[in-house]
From TrEMBL:
GO biological process: DNA-templated transcription initiation
Residue ranges of domain RNA polymerase sigma factor 70 region 4 type in the record: 131-182
Name of the protein described by the UniProt record: RNA polymerase, sigma-24 subunit, ECF subfamily
Keywords: DNA-binding, Sigma factor, Transcription, Transcription regulation
Organism: Halothermothrix orenii (strain H 168 / OCM 544 / DSM 9562)
């Protein structure tokens, strides 16, 4: 990419150069997919929702006002789509949580960087990541979205507040509860834990 700002690309798209939307997709696709995967717990739904997020973003691009950054706006759309999907799932099942690993696919952790060289370490790293994803899947939707946006995607508290539409204090308290829940779920992992 040539370093052109998102806002400039958006203005060019709105002026008729629709093919430039591919630049925005290329720039954010991995991060959007990672968010949807972490919130939904499986790769097929994450792929579908990632595509849906970009389609919805493209169709509504003329509504982007620039009050927040494009990435904040995109992740607001993405998070809202994930919320809708999780609500649909809740209506379909008695429990809002996924059974252990039901939606987790081991090949989905292949993209997670692991710098270990020893096969046993590599295996343990993958097992740890699988355990973390299963624990994330067990979180209530409001806690899941803040843990994904803050600890996995690296958004600031302010950005998360804008994305999910709640006060910053609410973001912090949900994040605290989510981290405590994750620690509780992960306490059985020997010698490992989240701080």
């Amino acid at each position: 990419m040539d370093g052109t700002s998102d806002e400039k690309i958006i203005n060019m798209i709105l002026a008729g150069e629709k093919e430039l939307f591919a630049r925005l997709v290329e720039k954010y696709q991995r991060k959007v997919y990672n968010t949807t995967y972490r919130m939904l717990g499986n790769s097929e739904d994450a792929s579908d929702l990632t595509q849906e997020a970009f389609i919805k973003t493209f169709r509504n691009l003329k509504r982007f006002r620039g009050k927040a950054s494009f990435s904040t706006w995109l992740f607001t759309i993405t998070t809202n789509l994930c919320r809708d999907e999780l609500r649909k799932r809740q209506r379909r099942s008695a429990s809002p949580h996924f059974p252990d690993g039901q939606h987790f696919m081991s090949e989905d952790i292949e993209n997670i960087k692991d710098n270990s060289k020893v096969p046993e370490d590599l295996y343990m790293g993958r097992e740890t990541m699988a355990s973390i994803q299963r624990a994330i899947n067990k979180l209530p939707a409001d806690q899941k979205e803040v843990i994904v946006l803050r600890d996995i995607q690296g958004f600031s508290y302010k950005e998360i507040s804008e994305i999910i539409g709640v006060p910053m204090g609410t973001v912090k308290s949900r994040l605290s509860r989510a981290r405590k829940s994750l620690q509780k779920h992960l306490k059985n992992i020997e010698g490992r834990g989240l701080k």
